[in-house]
Automatic annotation (TrEMBL):
GO CC terms in record: plasma membrane
InterPro entries given in the database record: ABC1_TM_dom, ABC1_TM_sf, Type_1_exporter
Protein name: ABC transmembrane type-1 domain-containing protein
UniProt membrane topology term: Multi-pass membrane protein
Organism whose genome encodes this protein: Carpinus fangiana
PANTHER family noted in UniProt: ABC TRANSPORTER B FAMILY, ABC TRANSPORTER B FAMILY MEMBER 19
């Protein structure tokens, strides 16, 4: 009698285990990304001219950032001029004429400040980036020949020269100037709010840290996810650049399926990160808007009580609220 031997097929790997493995790899990439250099290393290749340009750009950023709260202060003064002289047109015109020259002064001051902010920071970033690219190329060429096989692939080198350098240029040329401008807006907004109505300013200082915490957490998480996505994109680019030039060898050794599988795995990891990024964007934006509008409602309600008690005018309350809340955003 013949015996029938049933050979059971090996159990297939569950999809959950694959998802967990991908998530573990994503977390490992995030841990690698989290190890960043100190901030002062960003300006390591700046010379005396670059520091002078950045000093002028800082001055322009501060003046440009202070313009918005000062504009709200002038708006409050104009509203007070309208509200206090509803029955006297001549007095209203005289009060408005006292405010209008300061608006012109602010306009004339912000024009050169904006030019200094953009031009100086951009020019300084271009000069530093040229030296940084040259230093990067020298560092690559000074490596031992064995480092080019496992670590320094052509995809990583091209990605470092193009994408990473563009991020550094964006950080020096735009982000630093924008940060200084926003910081000046925030500080001047607090000062103007305290001058207009200290009660509203004190209440806003209790609410603003929550807005800042949400914004800081959102930005940190988004930067981590973006950096991890760039790592996976670099791996996928490296795979393509290694496969296409050697396509005959790949076909000869039947390696096209392996190349497709490796590329698909990188894309799947990017897809997992994209899902987390979409969820984070939705939750972060919703929380930010919710806290902002609730803060608006609370501060305006307190401002109405202060105006009713005749401890401040309506224009001062509007200037205080807009200065401190828009400065925090």
């Amino acid at each position: 009698m013949r015996r029938t031997v049933h050979i059971s097929s090996p159990p297939q790997e569950p999809m959950q285990m694959k998802e967990e493995m991908k998530r573990e790899e994503v977390e490992e990439k995030k841990e690698i990304v989290a190890k960043a250099l100190p901030f002062y290393k960003l300006l390591s290749y700046a010379d005396a001219l670059d520091w002078s340009l950045m000093a002028l750009g800082t001055l322009g950023s501060i003046v440009h950032g202070m313009a918005q709260p000062i504009g709200y202060l002038l708006l409050g003064k104009a509203l007070n001029a309208f509200g206090d002289n509803l029955n006297d047109t001549d007095a209203m015109v005289k009060a408005i004429k006292k405010v209008v020259p300061f608006v012109w002064y602010m306009a004339f001051a912000t024009f050169p400040a904006g030019i200094l902010e953009v031009e100086c920071w951009m020019y300084a970033s271009e000069r530093q980036l040229a030296r940084l690219r040259l230093a990067f190329l020298r560092a690559v060429l000074s490596q031992e020949i064995g480092a080019f096989d496992p670590d320094l692939t052509s995809g990583k080198i091209i990605d470092g020269i193009s994408n990473h350098m563009s991020i550094i240029q964006d950080a020096i040329g735009e982000k630093l100037g924008h940060f200084l401008s926003s910081f000046a807006t925030f500080l001047s907004g607090i000062l103007i709010a305290a001058i207009c109505c200290w009660e509203v300013a004190l209440l806003a200082l209790l609410v603003v840290p929550l807005i800042l915490a949400i914004g800081a957490t959102y930005t940190t998480k988004m930067n981590t996810i973006t950096a991890a996505k760039m790592l996976f994109q670099s791996e996928a680019t490296c795979m393509v650049e290694q496969t296409i030039p050697q396509i005959k060898t790949v076909y000869a050794f039947v390696g096209e399926s392996f190349a497709i599988k490796s590329f698909s795995e990188c894309m799947d990891k990017q897809f997992l990160l994209s899902k987390g990024e979409a969820l984070l964007k939705g939750v972060g934006t919703g929380m930010f808007q919710t806290v902002s509008f609730c803060s608006w409602a609370l501060i305006v309600w307190v401002g109405a009580i202060v105006v009713t008690a005749k401890r401040a005018s309506g224009g001062d309350i509007i200037a205080a609220v807009m200065s401190i809340l828009f400065g925090a955003m």
